[in-house]
Every structure is written in C-alpha cells, then in structure tokens.
Amino acid sequence: MAKYIGKRILMMIPVLLGVILVVFIMNHISPGNPAELLAGEGATDEAVAALEEELGLNDPLYVQFFNYVKGIVTGFDLGTSYQTKRPVIDELMDRFPTTAKLALLSIIISTVVGITLGIISAVKQNTIIDHISTGFALIGVSMPAFWAGMMLILLFSIYLKWLPVSGVDTWTGWILPAFTSSMVGMATITRMTRSSMLEVLCQDYIVTARAKGLSEKIIIVKHALKNALIPIITVVGIQLGTMLGGAVLTESVFSIPGLGKYMVDSIKNRDYPVVQGGVLLLAIVFSLVNLLVDIIYAYVDPRIKSQYSRGKKRAD
Amino acid sequence: MKSHLRILALMLAMVLLLSACGGSPQEGDPSAENTGDGEVKDTLVIGNYAEPTVLDPPNQNMVPAALVNVQIYDGLVRQDNETGEIVPSLATSWEYVDDYTIRFHLRDDVYFHDGSKMTAEDVKFTFDRGATCSQKSMIFEPFDPAKTRIVDEYTIELGTKDVFPAALSYLTNNGTLIVSKSAVEAAGSDDAYGRQPVGTGAYKFVDWIAGDRIILERNEEYWGELPEFKNLIIRTIADDTTRALALESGEVDIAYNFAPAQVDMLKNSEVVDVVSAPSYTTNYCGLNSAYEPLSDKRVRQALRYAVDMDTISEIAFASGLPADGPVTPALSCYVPAGEDQQYEQDVEKAKQLLAEAGYADGFDLILSCNESQARISLAQMLANAWKEIGVNTEVRSMEFSAQLNEIYNGESQAFLLGFVAGGNDGEFYRAMFQAGNDGADWINYDNPEVNELFDLASKEMDAELRAGYYTELQTLLRDEMPWLWVRFADNIWGISKDLTGLDLDPEWYSEYRFITSK
Questions:
Q1: ipTM (interface pTM)
Q2: Theoretical Cys-Cys bridge with B58: which of B31, B46, B133, B305, CB 3.0 to 4.6 Å?
Q3: B18/A43 CB distance under 8 A
C-alpha cells in the first residue's frame, strides 16, 4: 500500500509540470497586458513600458518559463504578484484556509444530506418521497449559486435578520455560504446514491440477505450501502476537489476572502504569477484528493486493496 | 469495522487540521467588540468594491487603494470639495518664487504614525521617489527633482521642468501624498512598504486581512481635528448587490459605486441615504481616425446626429448628466456648449453629412465595450440608431483587459470607455487629444489647432488667458468630435441615515474623518 501511495505521488510530478506549462502558455497567448492593467485606465505609454520592464515581461518567453520553474524547484518560490507585490505563496495561503473551511463544511453537509436522501429515495423508489427528493436534487443542480445565495440573504439576513449578509467574522456568517455551496454537491450525491443503491438492491446477495431474515436496516446500511459506496465516494471526491479550488460564485455573493474569487480577479488582472501558482495549488489539491479517494476505495472494497498491493491499478 | 474507524479518524483529523489552520480571519477586529445594544458606536465600516493593490501612494493607480490612502496620508495641499478651492494641508501657505518654483511653508507640529516628525526632508523624499515610480509618472512628470530645494526644516521649494500653472492641482492628486522617509527606508523595499503604510493622516494602519478588510484606527496625535470614530474598517465587498444589501442590513455604514439597479433599491431604503455628486468622469465613445470613414469630421458628427444621446445614455447609466463635451461641469474650466453645438437628434442631417463625406450607402463599424451592463446596453442602442443611417455596427463586448489592449494598440475602430480627469484642471485632457500623447494615439487624432491650444494653456500663468484657451478648445473639440461624449457620470454613495458629513469627492476619495453621527 505504501509503495502504491509513493508511486502515485511520484506520478503527480509530470502532471504538475504539464499543468505549469499549459497555464503558462495560456496566460501568455490570451490577449491583455498585465502592465496596462496595473498602470490604470489612461496611463502613459512610458508608464506601461516601465512596468513591463519591472515585471520582467520583456524577457523571452522561454526565459520567463525557465525562471519560473527554477524558482519552484529550488525553493518552492511561486513568484510575486504583479498587483500586490507580495509573494504568491503568501497570497494563496492567506485565502486557502477560508476556502478549505468552506469546502469542508459544504462537503459534510452535502454528503450527509445527499446520502440520506439518496438512500431514502432508493428504498422508497417511485413513491412520493422519492419524487420529492429527486425533485429537490433537480432544483439543487439547476439553481445558480449567485441567485440562490442572494435569495437566502434576502430571506435570512434582510427579512428575518437572523444571519449576516456577508463576511465570515462569526460562525453565523458561515451558515448561508456553506449551505449555498453545498447545494450542487448535495443534489449530485443524492442522485448518485439513489442510482447506485437501486443497482445494488436488486443484486442476488441482497435477496440472500433478506432470505436469511436480516433486518432491513442492516441490509441497507451494511450490505447495500457499502457496496454502493464506490461511485458515491468518487462523486464526493470530485466535489471536494472542485470546492477546494474555491467556490467563485458563493465567495462573490457572500464576500468571502477565498481562493476562487481571488483567482478570477487575478485572471482578469492578468496577474500571471498568481494564476499560475493558484492553478498549480489547485492541481496539487486535486491530485491529493484523488489519491485520498483511491485510498478510501481500498478500505471500502478489499478487492481493490489487494489489487493495490499486487502493484496493479484497478481495471476500471 | 476497524477500517471504518480508521476512515472516520482520518476524516476527523482532516476537519480538525483545516479548522485549526482556518482560524478566525477576523481576530483582533475591533468591530466585533461594539455590536451589542446600547454601546456607543465607535467604528465606521466602509464597503469598497475591490481589493487595493498596495497602500503606497505613487505605486498604485486604482480607486479602491487611493481611497484608503487618503485616510492614512495627507498631501501638501488638498481640494476643498465644497468650494472647489485648493486649501492648506501639510503646507500652511505657499508662494510662487518664480514661474518655475513654488515655496511651501510646512506645519511644524506633524508627526508620522511611526512617531517621526514630518519635515521638508520627507517632502523631498516623496517627490524624489515619486519621480521614479511608473504608475503615477504622469503626476510627477512636470516636477523636476533637481530643482527641489530644502530651505529649512519646514520650508521647501518644488520646481517644475517648465512653466506649469497646473502644479497645485497636480499636488491635490493622491499620488503625491507625503510618505515617511524613515518608514519607507525601514521597510526595506517599496513592495514591503505597500503593506505597512505610514502617513500623517487622521487614521493609522493597523491590519490588512487579505481579500477581506483593512483595519485603521484613529491617529490620536493627528494635527487636525480628531475624527469622531475610533476605528475605520474598509471591507472589500466586490459584488454590487451584496454591498448594497450589507448597507441595508447595517453591516456597512458607507458604500459607493453601485450599478443602477442597486441605486434604485437603496433609494427605497429606510435606513440608507443615497447621495450623489458630479464627478470628473466622462463616459465617451472613442472614434479612431485610422479607420478611414471616421477620419472625416462629417462622419463623426453624423454618428452623433443619428442618436438621441440624452435618452439612451439615461437608460444605460440611470444617473449623471447628458454630456455636452469632453470636460465635465465639475471642473472649473468647463464651459457649457453654445446654442449652435447642441447636436439634437436629426437623422436627416446625419444622412446628409454622410452623403457629403461620400458614405451615402453607409459603412461597417466595429464598436467595442467591456462587460459592464451599462456599456453593453449603450453599445446596442448606438448600433440600432446607427443602422438607421446605414452604418452597420457590430458590437463586441469583451473582457476589459482584452479591450484595453486593443485600444492601446490603436486597433479599435470605435470603443466605449470612461475618462477620469486626475484633478481639477484642463491640463488633464491634454493626453487625450493632443497628438503624440497616448489618448490621442488610441484614436490617431492630430489637429494642429488643438495641439497648439493645449501647449498655450499648459504654460500660461495668467488665469484668465488660460481659461480662454480652454474655452476655445472645448468649442473646437465639440465641432471636431474626436469622441462622442455620452454622459457625465455622477458619483453615488449610500450612507447610513444615522451619519452625516460625507465629503463628496469627484474622484471618490472622500476623507472619512469628517463623518459624524447625526
């Protein structure tokens, strides 16, 4: 198992290098000039030229790329933000904890609610409860966060005055954003749990379990859910990875100082080092979450674990 | 079962780890202390629409940063927004030694927030340093560091490279706010200083929570009248609607720069007053002479005659005044357009002008704008109106950086943009219309008469003669129409009904030290 994990971590290196290269190229081929944006509307040509020199934008591209990679490899130096002149790593680390907290709160809410609703609608398939929960799931995926967030603010902050409009200074400030950003995940997990459970519930071993006279509760939780978990874990993993990259809309609506909003602003400002560093961080987080998901697979399904220890990757 | 426990433990550990490193981002935030009922409100919270870059006056060029700077720093002089006059600040008085030199007498009772005394040395340092900073180079460019002379500890002479009557207006620009020499040197680099600013202002810097807020507190040693509020918190709330709702809910006391929809919402509020004041901003449509049809004055005038600009700009921007020229009425050199330069909508006249210019069948035009809803709707309305006279307009809404790039390279045929004068002086328009300057290059505009008038006005020390040149310029530009002026913008603030004393700055740089409870 340890060997497997080690191998997976090593495999991340080419992926990350690829990410750096692609983002670097995309940054430089997209129209727009960071110096022009920094100099402001109506800046003189001299001011822009001086800033270009200052930011090192006049070096040939391969030199810029080489310097960037060298910085990362030799001292995990992601460069300095063009906008704020602070080290990119500081900028990202100021915001990542907030994003991580929001992502974790949301994933907990969406997993708990999603799996519960999914199980209920699978077990009560085609009943009114099933329709309600699938309907709820449909609304959850279809409602854009900026709209849902705004409606929640209007109801709970302006009308009822229970919760703050924006900011996360107090724990009450987390409630609306966590709920808003959990909605899509909640809906996806509900649907995935439902279909995966339905598939498992008609397997022979469930019939056997029923024939043995086991209680319905044990059959559902121990026999059915455990076997239905693999695709659910995959979905949860993807959701978590996405949320750790920052929930842009939720962060904007609730004015939360997280990574998502910051990345979008940096793209708009053509703050290349921040965009590169941010995507790199995102790629690392995504790879680690994927690895974590694969490790959890092994604990859920012993067959997968034995594959890992034989040094083979899963067939799917 | 054992494996379940391990997964559970793993997840729990993750939660703990993340919540530990998350912490509370607002630790030490004074606003948290006085939210209870019955307590005296001692904190003023401002809603800023974007995160400042750095809090270093000459190294930024954005409203959200400068707005914080004017709370922390003072300049030599400032503009009184009620009278429009330039009044003393760190300088108590000044006189022209000759046409090139102004002597400033400084206050001798001013201390920086780091405890050091403000002297002529700091002023010299500010101007020497400013001359090397690119983002405010336009403001420092007319001043000649070689001519700066410290007369004594509290007297300094600033020299200009040429005769420069606009010098005092330039000194009201936030780029020239006085920084502490010792603090900049102690910080080690400009980059580090920009995160730990030291000024002489009524509020001093306490903390900056990235992406969230900047915390300032009253400078008890302030040389002027102390502000009523002990703490000043400037929060970044980028979303327009959220900023308006935060104001409505009382989380924020003052916010600014709203989209028309939010202004309507706030006007109906029971807890918020909406205040507006004329700004230095002109919304315009630039017409690039490099594109053959637009090089003909008659075509440009035709485009103006084809539209009912007052109505469509009102629909698009919902505030401000119809523009009758490039210069806004908030500037003292403004003169209203004469009877013969009103450009009422007249489609027949527009068609006739086009025909005279040889474009009776019209032509194709690309009009670019950024993603602002107001500008997009304006562009669409312009395109519709121009269709009537045979000008087939394609509206291209693009990301701001891409649009700027195109404009700066002189590649846009027609574009919607806003121009903000850097202060109360006609000189700020020079870069836009005098050939060889950037703004004029974007539209490839070169008119010898305009060029000469800007040169004359720039160096004329006689105020009356100078005003005459600007009057002539405005008449000429109204006829030449290198831009279609769209609308003069108003600055709109929302302020809690419990507060008063908002300093209505035409560039948004209100000094919040003047705010008091009602």
A1: 0.82
A2: B133
A3: no
